[in-house]
Amino acid sequence: MRFGPDHPLVLDSGAKIDNLQIGYQTYGELNADRSNGVLVCHALTGDQHVASVNPVTGKPGWWETMVGPGKPIDTNRFFVICTNVVGGCMGTTGAASTNPATGQPYGLDLPLITIPDMVRAQAMLVDALGIDQLFCVAGGSMGGMQVLQWAAAYPERVFAALPIATGPRHSSQNIAFHEVGRQAIMADPDWHGGRYLSVGASPRKGLAVARMAAHITYMSDEGLHKKFGRNLQDRDKIAFGFDADFQVESYLRHQGLSFVERFDANSYLYVTRAMDYFDLAADHGGRLANAFLGTKTRFCIISFTSDWLFPTTESKAVVRALNAAGASVSFVEVETDRGHDAFLLDEPVMFASVRGFLSSAAAARWQ
Amino acid sequence: MTEPVTGSLSNRVDLLLIAELVERGARVLDVGCGDGELLKLIEDTRDVDGRGIELSYQGVNECLARGLSVIQGDADTDLVDYPDDSFDYVILSQTIQATRNPKAVLGEMLRIGRRAIISFPNFGHWTVRTSLGFKGRMPVTENLPYSWYDTPNIHFCTIRDFVALCHEVDAKIEKAVALNAGGQRMTLNAPWWFWNLFGQQAVFVLRR
To answer: Contacts of residue B72 in chain A, CB cutoff 8 Å?
Structure first.
């Protein structure tokens, strides 16, 4: 969907984006009173193809275990909307899009994007679809940040909120990991100060290293050890060299290489920065509970025991704030060794929680 | 007088009794709410705004499926997160004996709730005394089915012990009810020693 210059996206930085384009997918049918909309928010490198084959990778949707007919977020029942975030590279305006002012790709001329900016753009799309109130806004990781931002910014437009494996701010450690990734990209000579598209290059090595570093944070020590141990890759003994001796090295290299096929390096800079800047309490006078005062939204928060990127303490900070605000909140900590990525995987306890939460919320919404 | 509550829980008289003690429209926190049976009963019959805390994810998920707002957490560590006077009632049903620090839990309950409702199995019941006194064995009864080595119940008390704790934390006993082995309420004018010997369970309403 394209918005004209009469509908600019005004950003937190003060800049604005004219001719905003939003790439999105929908699943299921919008009901007659337009009340069954569920907005699913994707994580850092996700996209709008939540429950359908990704046209770039040819792989199934990134949350097909959660979203689909008869799934916990049931598309037989709900009208599911998923948009590519602003700053992304799958159809929504981002660094690789054409800057209308120059006719060239934006590159680093795209203004900085924040999580609230992403949510504001989603709200423009939801408006354009004629939906006043979403039945639910759901998402994990950066998607969970968007859920919290939705609930804080538009409480009357969110009947139920489902933030998973997320937190009310990006921690110092998380900012540090993102900085490593950005520096890897910017250190690649093929980055060309962000103008690689104009000169026909691509900082593939830098982006792959960024992905490799980040991917470690999505798993757990125990999970990695269980999956790979110290097993060697296609050899019986160590080769006394810097080739990928170990399976875990080979796996990470593969993750890095396949990532660069589908993701734009500048987008990676923008979207990681948006997460770094997120601090919901700071936006509300330093007190997180202020973000949710008087809210009627019902919340279900889920965390995972082995997630060290967004540990349970981060989720509990949100739970505490919601309690202090007198909000309706449920919280489940799922036991797993799969780390942060557990939210994307087959975790039956999570599915049961989401099913229970959504069906009882639906009973309350349409009683 | 409180209004009677009807429900299909005839085998859990203590739950019905607790539900009767809750005023309509109140804000209620059920600590250790299990699968949400009591909280659901209170929401359905007393029209309250109910919340729960439960240790197990299985319990939390059963509560979610019932439409209850429940947090996975621990009475010993998570009550401190609630602001003062958040609730009209904080309920601890058959759970105080499983907490690590019952005195601190009771203190927190009275801080975050205007009233605390506590029900617990009476360790002074004559069957318990008989088992320990005559057989010399820790009691294993229908109500207390665990052996000493696998019981989650680490802080048993008698009705008189509990009354002493109430005095110690300066809680006012607004109401106290004992249930006999048949689940019937015992006569109100019976002396404490009689309750302590024949009451199988007790329900107390406390305030600061």
So the answer is: 331-333
| Residues written for chain B | 208
Q: Is A258 a catalytic residue?
A: no
pLDDT along chain B (208 residues), means of 10: 41 83 96 95 93 94 92 94 94 93 96 96 88 87 84 90 94 92 77 86 93
ipTM: 0.83
Cβ atoms < 10 Å from Cβ of B133: 9
Rounded CA separation A260/B185 (Å): 72
d(CA A1, CA A297): 28
Contact A296, A186 (CB under 8 A): no
Cβ separation A319–B71 shorter than 8 A? yes
Which stretches of chain B sit within 8 Å of chain A by CB?
51, 57, 60-73, 81-83, 86
Chain B nearest CA to A353, separation (Å): 5
Tell me the domains of chain A and their CATH numbers.
Answer: 24-83+133-169+282-365 (3.40.50.1820), 174-273 (1.10.1740.110)
pLDDT at res. B188: 66
For residue B5, the model assigns a pLDDT of 43
The lowest-confidence range among A110-119, A195-204, B179-188 is B179-188
A349: closest CA of chain B, how far (Å): 8
Q: CB within 8 A of B117, min separation 6: which ones?
A: B18, B21, B22, B89, B90, B91, B92, B93, B203, B204, B205, B206
Which domains are seen in chain B, by residue range?
13-122+154-207 (3.40.50.150)
Region A174-199: mean pLDDT is: 97
Residue window 68-97, chain A: list those with CB within 8 Å of chain B: none
